[in-house]
């Protein structure tokens, strides 16, 4: 369950009413942006979550909400924000600048696992090179994967803390990894700016670069000559890893006292494949039989 949120007042602007240019709602209601203000959200726009992990500054959360709304997105998830009621914080509301509805509707959860519950595919944003985790790609390439995966269900883009970014564990939990190729001499990108870059790239990809109504790949799309089955959810994949790890321990292949990087390498291997639900079931079936042969019944 998500915690109760404070109540906020919203100003409803009729489609034909005049709004002063200095009013917070002017941008959304002005004639030049009328199409954007009333653009129906559909497809990937409603199936994409933007997840901020442990954001420190309320202003960045508000600015991120604004970035999402300008690109037609609305699903914001906050993992253990430093300010518990950040969506009510005056600085966050001010920086949202008219995206109060996106900010107020933000879901607040305690862990990244909770934020990814029910997600079919997720992409982590990182500013530094990682030894483990999925292979990194540029945002423009990564969002093409997002377009293919969103046809199967919810997807998520995951952003780290302003100061420390994402932990290795957080990165390994995601299906893909992206890096914004900023100026190497000054690559520090504000959290809300990073959200804006990815939301923009994803918007172009979803709309087919200015072609509204373009069809996204369906669940039965053919990939590499084979009909792709339903993808496994993040929850299913995490349970598979637990099951597989227990089986490897039972085989004495994995020493829990000295695991090294075995599970991290296996996560990287599986992340490259885009696991389908049936494939996860196969791996878990193998793990189950290993545990049965070893006289162990746990690990599910």
Describe this structure in words.
By secondary structure, this protein is an alpha/beta fold. It is 40% helix and 11% strand. The protein contains 13 helices and nine strands. It has helices at 26-29, 34-37, 44-47, 58-70, 90-96, 100-104, 112-115, 139-149, 168-173, 191-207, 234-250, 262-271, 277-293, and strands at 48-53, 76-79, 107-109, 121-125, 136-137, 155-159, 176-178, 222-223, 226-227. It has a seven-stranded parallel sheet with strand order 3-2-1-6-4-7-5. Strands 8-9 form a two-stranded antiparallel sheet. The radius of gyration is 21 Å and the shape is elongated. The two termini are 25 Å apart. Mean pLDDT is 79; it is low at 1-5, 7-38 and 209-227. Residues 15-40 are annotated as: Disordered.
The 3D shape can be described as elongated
| Strand neighbour order, sheet with most strands | 3-2-1-6-4-7-5
Counting helices, strands and paired strands, the structural category is: alpha/beta
Count of separate DSSP helical elements: 13
Instruction: Give the integer mean of the pLDDT values.
Output: 79
Largest sheet: 7 strands, parallel
Order of H and E elements: HHHEHEHHEHEEHEHEHEEHHH
Helicity level: 25-40%
- The percentage of residues in β strands lies in 5-15%
Distance between the termini: 25 Å
The radius of gyration over CA amounts to 21 Å
Number of strands: 9
Unreliable residue stretches: 1-5, 7-38, 209-227
Function: Catalyzes the formation of 2'O-methylated cytidine (Cm32) or 2'O-methylated uridine (Um32) at position 32 in tRNA.
Protein name: tRNA (cytidine/uridine-2'-O-)-methyltransferase TrmJ
Main location: cytoplasm
EC number: 2.1.1.200
């Amino acid at each position: 369950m998500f915690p109760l949120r404070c109540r906020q007042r919203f100003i409803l602007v009729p489609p034909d009413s005049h709004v002063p240019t200095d009013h917070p709602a002017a941008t959304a209601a002005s004639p030049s942006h009328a199409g954007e203000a009333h653009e129906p959200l559909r497809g990937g726009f409603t199936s994409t979550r933007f997840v901020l992990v442990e954001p420190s500054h309320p202003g960045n959360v508000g600015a991120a909400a604004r970035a999402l709304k300008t690109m037609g997105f609305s699903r914001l998830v906050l993992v253990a924000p430093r300010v518990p009621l950040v969506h009510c914080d005056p600085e966050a509301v001010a920086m949202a600048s008219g995206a109060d509805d996106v900010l107020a509707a933000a879901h607040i959860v305690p862990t990244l696992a909770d934020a990814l519950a029910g997600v079919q595919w997720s992409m982590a944003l990182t500013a530094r090179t990682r030894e483990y985790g999925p292979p990194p790609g540029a945002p423009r390439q990564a969002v093409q994967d997002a377009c293919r995966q969103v046809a199967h269900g919810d997807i998520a883009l995951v952003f780290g803390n302003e100061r420390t970014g994402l932990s290795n564990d957080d990165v390994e939990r995601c299906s893909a990894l992206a890096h914004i190729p900023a100026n190497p001499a000054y690559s520090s990108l504000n959290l809300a700016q990073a959200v804006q870059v990815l939301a923009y790239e994803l918007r172009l990809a979803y709309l087919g670069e200015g072609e509204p109504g373009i069809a996204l790949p369906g669940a039965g799309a053919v990939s590499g000559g084979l009909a792709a089955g339903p993808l496994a959810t993040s929850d299913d994949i995490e349970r598979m890893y637990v099951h597989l790890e227990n089986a490897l321990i039972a085989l004495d292949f994995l020493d829990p006292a000295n695991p090294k990087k075995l599970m991290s390498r296996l996560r990287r291997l599986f992340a490259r494949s885009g696991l389908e639900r049936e494939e996860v079931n196969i791996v878990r079936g193998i793990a189950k039989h290993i545990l049965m042969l070893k006289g162990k019944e746990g690990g599910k």
